[in-house]
Structures
1.
Amino acid sequence: MIKQQNMMIVSHQSIAEDVYELTLQGSLVRHMSSPGQFVHVKVTAGSDPLLRRPISICSIDPLLEQFTMLYRVSGGGTKVLSNLVKGSEINVMGPLGSGFPVDELREGEKALLIGGGIGVPPLFELSKRLKTKGVKVTHVLGFQQQSAVFYKHEFEQLGETYIATADGSEGTKGFVTDVIKDHSFEPDAYFTCGPTPMLKAVENMLDHTPGFISMEQRMGCGIGACLACVCHVQGDDTGLLYKKVCSDGPVFRSGEVVL
Amino acid sequence: MSRLAIELPGLSLKNPIMPASGCFGFGKEYSQFYDLSELGAIMIKATTRETRFGNATPRVAETASGMLNAIGLQNPGLSHVMEHELKWLEQYDVPIIANVAGSTVEDYVEVAERISGAPNVHALELNISCPNVKDGGIAFGTDPAVAKELTERVKSVSKVPVYVKLSPNVSDISKMALAVEDGGADGLTMINTLVGMRLDSRTGKPVIANKTGGLSGPAIKPVALRMVFEVSQKTSLPIIAMGGVQNEYDVIDFISAGASAVAVGTANFVDPLVCPTIIQNLQALLKEWQIDHIHELKGRSWMSVGETANYRT
Ligand SMILES: Cc1cc2nc3c(=O)[nH]c(=O)nc-3n(C[C@H](O)[C@H](O)[C@H](O)COP(=O)(O)OP(=O)(O)OC[C@H]3O[C@@H](n4cnc5c(N)ncnc54)[C@H](O)[C@@H]3O)c2cc1C
Ligand SMILES: Cc1cc2nc3c(=O)[nH]c(=O)nc-3n(C[C@H](O)[C@H](O)[C@H](O)COP(=O)(O)O)c2cc1C
Ligand code: FES
C-alpha cells in the first residue's frame, strides 16, 4: 500500500564523493516489502524544486521502522536534500513500484548482482534477502573512479564483490561487463540496476540467463497516472504497448521492455 | 447549506474542486489515497478515437516552480475508455468531464458523440489546446473560425454540455472565447499549458524528446489568472479555471478573477491528497471569513480602474 508521510531524518552522512547515505524513520517503513522498490521524495515544502524525486530503497529495518537510501548530488533537488540535517523531516511517498523477485531463486542457487554507479543501492537490500534465503550472491559493481566507490565492505560481507572503475583507480579497469567477461560466474539469475547503456550491455551479454533489470526514467506522479515514464515493450510491432516504469516497474524481466 | 456546492451546465457539484485532465489518469491511482466521491468532478485524461502511444521519452522536465510535459495524448482509445475506465468510475458518486481530443473534425465528432452517451459523463471538455501533438489539437485552438466550427459540430452530436478548453498560446484569448461561445459552447475551461522549453546547459540539447513541452504548475498561475480575469468579463460562459493551483488561496484567487470552479493539475504529482485537502481548507477558510457561499467572491477583482489591493510592506 502506498503511503505519504513526513519522515524523520535519523542519520545523514557523506559516504563517497557527492554520495550521501540518508536514514529515515516512520511507520511507512512497515509497508516496504520488496527490494528494488523506490520512494518519491519531496525535498522541500515549497515549489523550488516542485516535483518529487525518485530514490531507491537501499535497506530496510522493519524493527526500528527505518530505511536507508543512498543518493548522488546531481542537480538542484539532490543538492537541497544534501543540506538537510538529522532531526528534520521530509515528505516521503512510497513504497512505489514492483521490486526484484527474491523468490526467483532457491537455496543453493547462484545470483549475480550487477550495479552501476547510483544504480548500486537497491541491490543491497536484495543481496541481504537473497543471502538470508541461502542463495549464493556475487556482486559486480561499477563506478567512475575510486572516490565514487561506496558500500564495498557492506557488499563484501554478503558475498564475493568485484569492483570496476572506468579509470582503473580501483579494481578492474573498465566496465562491469569487462569483469563479467573475465569470469565464469554462471549464475542462475542476474539482477541489475544502473545507467541504460550498462543495462543494455548486460542484457546482451547474459542473454541466456534469466534476468531482472531495474530501469530509470524521468517521472511526474510516480504512481502511474501521468504517463511520463513509459517505455515500449519488446517484440511489439504495433508500437502501442507500453509499461510504466513507476508502477509496472522499475524492475522488469529481461527481454520485457525496450531499454 | 453548503458553502461550496455549485451548479454549472450539466454539472451539479458538491464543491468547485476537480483534478485537471492528464494529471489524474482515470482516477484509479489516486483512489488508493482517498474516496474519489469527495471530488466536485473528475476531468479524465484526453481520449482519442484510436489508441495512442504518445511522444518519445523523456516527456517531462522540471523548471522554476513548474514543469514541462510532452506526453502527446497517450491514451487507450475511445472503446477502452468507455468499457473499462468510465465503467470503473461508475462506483463513485462523482460527475465525469470527458476530455475529447483528435486530429480531424471527424475524430472529435465521433469521440464526442459516443463518450457523451456514457452514464457518468456529465460534460465534455473539448481539448483544442494540446501543444504536444503535431497534427490537430493546437490548430483548432488558435484559429477562431476553426474553433467555432468545431464547437458547432461537436455540439450538434453531444448529449451533454460542451466546455471548450482554451489555449494560452494565442495573442488574444478573448477572441477565441467569443468564437466558441458563438459556436454554442456551454462553458470554458482554461488554461491549458504554455509552450516552453528547457535545454541542458552543458550540451545545449533540449531536455524533452519532443524538444518543446507544455509549462504547468505555480509558474503559470499569474498568466492563467490574468486570462480568466479578461475572458470572464467578455463572455457570459461559466469558466472552470486551472493553472498552478496548489491551495485554497489559489482557488479563491481564480474565483475572484471570475471563474466558477477550479481544476488542479500538476499539484496532484506533488501531493496526491491535494484535492481533498483544498476542499477541506476552503470550507474552513470561508467559514472563518464568514462567507456563506463561495460564489459571493466571484468576480470581485473586476473593480474599476485605479483600485488595487492595499499591500502592507
Ligand atoms: C526508480 C528510480 C530510482 C532511483 N534511485 C536513485 C538512487 O537510489 N540514488 C540516486 O542518487 N538516484 C536515484 N535515481 C535518480 C534520481 O531520481 C535523480 O538523480 C534525481 O531525481 C535528480 O534530481 P536533481 O534535482 O538533483 O537533478 P535535476 O537534474 O535538477 O533534476 C531535474 C528533473 O529531472 C529528474 N531527473 C534527473 N535525473 C534523473 C534520473 N537519473 N532519473 C530520473 N529522473 C531524473 C528529476 O527527478 C527532476 O524532476 C533514481 C531514479 C529512478 C527513476
Ligand atoms: C502531465 C500533464 C498531462 C496533461 N494532459 C492533458 C490532457 O490530456 N488534456 C488536457 O486538456 N490537458 C492536459 N494537461 C493540462 C492540464 O489539464 C492543465 O490545463 C495544466 O496543466 C494547467 O494546470 P496546472 O498548472 O494545475 O497543472 C496536462 C498537464 C500535465 C502536467
Ligand atoms: S511517473 Fe507518472 S506514470 Fe509514471
2.
Amino acid sequence: MSAVLELDGVSRVFGGLRAVDGVTLTVGSGITALIGPNGAGKTTLFNLMSGLLPVSAGRIRFRGQDITGLSAHRRARLGMARTLQIKQVFAGLTVLDNAWIAARQRHRPLDPFRRASRDRVTRAAAEEALDAMGLLPLAAREAGSLAYGDVALLEIAMALATRPALLLLDEPVCGMSPAETERTVARIRAVSATTDVLIVEHDMDVVFGLADRVIVLAEGRVLADGPPAAIARNPQVREAYLGEEDAA
Amino acid sequence: MSALAVNRGLTALLLALLMVAPWLLAWMESEFWLTVLTEILIWGLFAASANLLFGQVGLLSFGQALYFGFGMYGVAIGIDRFGLGLWPAMGLGVAAAIVMAACAGVVAVRLTWHYFAIITVVFSLIFYFLALRLKPITGGDDGLSFAAPAIMDLGGLRLSLTDDATQYWFVLLIVALAFAVQARLRSSALGRAFAAVREGERKAALLGIDVLRVRWIAFVIAGGLAGLAGALFALYGRYASATHMYYTVSGEAVVWTVLGGAGTLLGPPIGAALLILVREELSGIWEHYPLIVGALTIAVVVFAPKGIAGGWNALLARVTGR
Ligand SMILES: Nc1ncnc2c1ncn2[C@@H]1O[C@H](COP(=O)(O)OP(=O)(O)O)[C@@H](O)[C@H]1O
Ligand SMILES: [Mg+2]
C-alpha cells in the first residue's frame, strides 16, 4: 500500500504549548478517521497538513513529494482538499459559483478574457460535485442563505470539485440532524470510492461506521493506530477517550 | 422582465444619453455643463479604481491618487519634455502608473484591512512630497502646464481637445472602453477569483487560489485605471500637479465608491456624478456644502449599506420577484 500522505515527526508549538508533538503517521487508501478528545490537536494537524500553518518541526510528504514548505494553494493544486471545522463558503456568491470557482483552479484559473459562463467544462464539473452532495436543486441560491447543514455539504462539494487525491474533512456532520448525518455519511462513503479520505469526527457511530482505519490523537501525540475493531478494544484508548465519551 | 435585462436597458440608455449630451446641452443652452460632465466621466473612472480593490477584492485603498498622479505626470512630462503626441503620452502615463502599482503592490498586498489602507496612504504621501521637491521634473508647487497635441491629424481631418464637444467625446470613448473592459473582467475567471478572495481568503487558498497573486493583479489593474483617469485629467486640464496626488483625493474615490455601491460596475461613477453635481450646485452658494456631502453619504450608508446601486438592485430584485 502506497501512502498518499506521510508525516514524519511533525510538531507544532504555540508559545509553551506543544499542540502537535512529534506525529509520525501515514494516510493510505480508503477512509481513515482521526479521533481524540477536544484539544488533542486534530484541527492543528489538519492545518499543518494543508499548509494553513507552518510546522515547528518534521517533514510532510504528499503523493511522494516533500510539501513541508509549500503554501496552502500549492498543496491544494497538488490534490489535497480540506474542509474547515468552522464551516466557510463564499457567502455572497451562488452555490453554483462557489463550486465553479473550486472546479476552475486547475485550468487557467486567472483568465481575464473569456466569460466564465461560457466555460461548460468547469460548469459540468461543478454540477457533478454539487450533485454528489445532493445540492444541485440549490445551485442558484446565494450560499449565505443556506441552512447550516447545507453549508457543510457545500464545503465538501467545493473540496470535491477540485478533484482531490486526498480529502481532509474536519467534523463534517457536526451540527447536522440524525437524518442529515445519515445521508452525509452515505455520500462520504460514495466519495471514498475515488478519493482517499481523512476524517476528524466526534460521533463514534459515524467513525466506526465509515472508517477502514482509526488513528487516535491525545495531547498532540498518536496514542493508537489500527483497524476500528482493534481501536475499540484498546484499553489505553478506552481510558483516554472512549471512557470519557461514556462518562459524558 | 429580469433584473439583468432592466439594468442592461438602463445602461444602454445612459450610454445613448451620454453620446448625444453635447447636442442636448447645446439645445438647452447649458454648454457649461459639458465640461462638468467631462470631469464626472474622468472621476467616475478614478472611482472605479478604488472600487476594483475595495468592491471586488476587499482591499480598502486610500492611495489611488498616487497612480492618478503618475498618469497625470506621465502625460505632462511626455508632452512637455519629450515632445510626444497625445496617444504615446497617454501610453506613458498609464505605463508609469502600472509600473508604480506593480512595485508598490508587491509590498501592499501582503497586508489587509487597516494595515493595507495605511501602507497605501504612506506610499502616496512619499511620492506627493517627492513630486513637490523634484521641481526640475514635476514643476514643484507650480505643476506642469502644456499645450495638448491633436487627438488625430489625418489629411484634412484634425481633431483637437480645444473643442469642448470633441474633448468630451474623446473622454467618453476612453472611459466607456475602460468600463467595457471592466465588465468583461468581472464576468471572467479572474473576476470570480477576485470575488473568492474577497469572500474568504483562507477558503480561496485551500481551493488552490494564489491569494497574494490575485490581489497583486487587482492592484496593478486598479493602478492602471487610476493612471488612465489621471492621464485623461491631465489632457483635460493641460496640466499636472502634485495636489491631485494627495491622499484626500484618494479618499474621495472611496466615498464615491461606498456611496454609489461598492462592488457594482456603475455604482461608483454614479456616486462620483452625484457628489460632483452637489459640489457644482452648492459650493458657490454655501461654503459649508461638504456638510451636505457628509450627510448624504451617511444617509445612504445607513439606509442602503450597499450604496445607491446596491439599493437599486435590491429594489429591482423585489419588483421582478427574484
Ligand atoms: N492558533 C493557535 N494559537 C494558540 N493555540 C492554539 C492555536 N490553535 C490551536 N491551539 C491550541 O492547540 C490545542 C489543540 O487544538 P486543536 O488542534 O483545535 O484541537 P482539536 O481540533 O483536536 O480539538 C488546543 O489546546 C488549542 O487551544
Ligand atoms: Mg478541532
3.
Amino acid sequence: MNFLARLGALVLDLLAEIGRVVLFTWDALTRGSLPPYYLRQILTQMVRIGYNSLPVVGLTAFFTGGALALQIYEGSSRFSAESTVPSIVALGIARELGPVLAGLIVAGRVSAAIAAELGTMRVTEQIDALVTLSTNPMKYLVSPRLIAAVLTLPLLVVVGDTIGIMGGYIVSTQSLDFNSGAYLKTTVDFLEVRDVTSGLIKSAVFGFFIALMGCYHGFNSRGGAQGVGRATTNAVVSASILILATNFIMTSLFFTD
Amino acid sequence: MSENHIELKNIHKSFGPKEVLHGLNLSVKRGHSMVVIGGSGSGKSVMLKCILGLLSPEEGSIHIGGRDVTGMSGANRDEVLSHFGMLFQSAALFDSLPVWQNVAFGLIQGKAMNRKQAKEIALEKLAQVGLGADVAELFPAELSGGMQKRVGLARAIAGDPEIIFFDEPTTGLDPIMADVINDLIVDCVKRLGATTISITHDMASARKIADDIAMIYKGEIIWQGTAEEVDNSGNDHVDQFIHGRAEGPIQMDVLKP
Ligand SMILES: Nc1ncnc2c1ncn2[C@@H]1O[C@H](COP(=O)(O)OP(=O)(O)O)[C@@H](O)[C@H]1O
Ligand SMILES: [Mg+2]
C-alpha cells in the first residue's frame, strides 16, 4: 500500500512537471515570436553553444568514426563482407551517432552551463531586475538560447558527420588496407540525401531540448547554491533522456515506411 | 500634490501554508518619501515585489496613480514598470555585463535607445553617485559592496523614473558609506521629484530619508505617520523598534537557555 501510494505520488509529480514544462515552452514560443528580437543575444549564444562546442564534438566524432570502422571490419569479416565498412560507417554516423553523440555531448556542456547561469541569475534576483527594467526575461534570456541552439546544432552535426566519416576513412586506409579512392567513392555513392537530412532534423530537435531544459531548470531554481547545483544536474539528465527518447521516436517515424 | 500615488489595500500573500502578508494597507502620496521599517522576515521585500508584479497577491488591490495594476501582465505591465526604478537588497547587478551596461540596460533594452547615447547617460548617472568613468568598464564582481549599491542606485535612476523603491539600501555597509548612500538617495529623489518607498531597519537612515514612516509587523502595517511623529507614536511596537530593545511586545523566536 505504502509502495503504491509512493508510486502514485511520483506519477502525479511527473505529470505536474510535464505540465509546467509545456507551459514554459508555450510561453517561450509565443513571447519569443513577438518583437523586440535580441539579435546580439542570439549571436552571442550561437558562439557559446555552437562554435565553442566544435572541439569536443569534433573529437568525439573522430574517435567514434574510427572505432566504428574497426568494429564493423571485425564483425563483417566473419562473413567476408569487409567491403561494407565505408557504407555502414557513413550510415551509422549520419543517421544515428553523429546527431545523438553531438546532442549528448552538447547537452552536458550547454544545458549545464545555461542552467547554472540562469539559476544564478534567478537566486541573485537578476531575473527580477530584468523585469523591473522593462525587459521580458523569456524574450531576453530564453528565446535567444532556444533559437541559437536550434540553428547551431545542425551545423555542428554537419561538421561532426564529416569528421566522423573522416575518422573511419583514416583508420580504414591506414590500418585496414582499404584503398583511399575506393573508400571515398563508396561512401559518396552509398549515402542518400535523407540519411543526412534526417540526422540534421533530429539535431535541431535535440538543440531545442538542450536549451529548453537548461532554461527551464535554471529559471525555476530555488534556494541558493544548492538549488543551482540541483538545477544543473536536472537539466543535463532531462535533456539527455529527452534526446534519447525523441531520437528513437524520430528514427521510427523517418525510417519505417 | 497630495493625492495617493501608490495605494495598497488589504494585500494577502502566502507561500504554501505560510502567510507572509495578511491584510496589508499602505498609501504613499505623490512626491513623498515613504520609509517602511520592520524586522527581518516581516515581509517588506515581498510587499515591494507585489507592487512590481514580480509576485501576485492572492487578495487585495494595488493602485498606482489611480490605475488598478493588480494582476496586470504583458505589455500593460511593461508600460507600468517603465515608470519604476528599483534598487534590490542584493543590488542584483548583471554580472555578465560591465558597470556602464548595467546602468544603461533599461535604456538600451527596455527603451531601445542607441548604445552611444545610453552610455553617455550611464556615465552621467554614475557621476551622480560618485563613480568615475574608470569604474564604468569594470564588472560588478570587481566592485566592493558599497560600490555595487551605488551602481544599483545609478541603474535605478537611469530611466528618470516617477517611482523608486530602495530595498535596504544601507544594510551591510559601514556607517560612513551608509550615510553617503542616504545622501545620494535624498539627492536623487529631490532631483527627480520621484515618489519613493525605502525599506530599512536602520533608524538613522530612516530619519534621514523619510517624509513618512510606516511600520510593518507580521505582514501588516501597524503604524503610519510622518517622520516627526515617529518618536511620539504612542505605539509600543514602534517604540521598541526605534530604540532597538530586546524587551517589548515584539518577541523574537529565539530559544532562551
Ligand atoms: N519566493 C519565496 N518563496 C517562499 N517564501 C518566501 C519567498 N520570498 C519570501 N519568502 C518568505 O517570506 C518572508 C518575508 O520575506 P521578506 O519579505 O524577504 O522579508 P524582509 O522583510 O526581511 O524583506 C520570509 O519568511 C521568507 O522566507
Ligand atoms: Mg528584504
